[in-house]
Amino acid sequence: MPIVGSFAGASARAYGLGAGLGAPIGYNSIATITVGTATPSVEFTAIPQTFTHLQIRAIGRNSASGGYDAYLQFNGVTSAVYSYHYLYSTGSGAITAGVDTTQGFVIGLRLTTPTETANNFGTGVIDILDYKNTNKFKSVRTLSGFNNNGGGFNWQTSGNWRSTSAITSLKLIASVSGNFAVNSTFALYGIEG
Fold it and tell me: Are the C-beta atoms of residues 117 and 149 closer than 8 Å to each other?
């Protein structure tokens, strides 16, 4: 059973510099999910439609060997209407790139697995742009990875959900039938600006 978080009405604000002449952008905390019992997915529901963009900040680990990726879906849609590009490098310096235009998800994060050092978690940030705009498909960009004693991954993706629907919920799924490990944490923010 997935863990679900929803907007509770309270928000915390932090400021960063945005595009265009250093205009301030507000980052408002919507919800945070910390995994207490290993689970195959986490879900944010009832996402408020009051921001311009969304951001997920994550620290996570997958229980399945080879289950590096965390998949992202919107509004419960699982059909092949997602596309993504990826580019990653390993600790050895090898660079790999690829694309998939007909998937049931966007690859969101690169996490650690049981083959990495115990208690070593991957980190990442996912930006979901113009999430409530009903005149365009939704775009996603990610940056994630981990270090594993000089090895590891640096992972970058871009993708889209071919729908003009406003995003009201999103789900992160541990790949390869794995589970997100205890203490994996996923924080959802609304971005103003």
Answer: yes
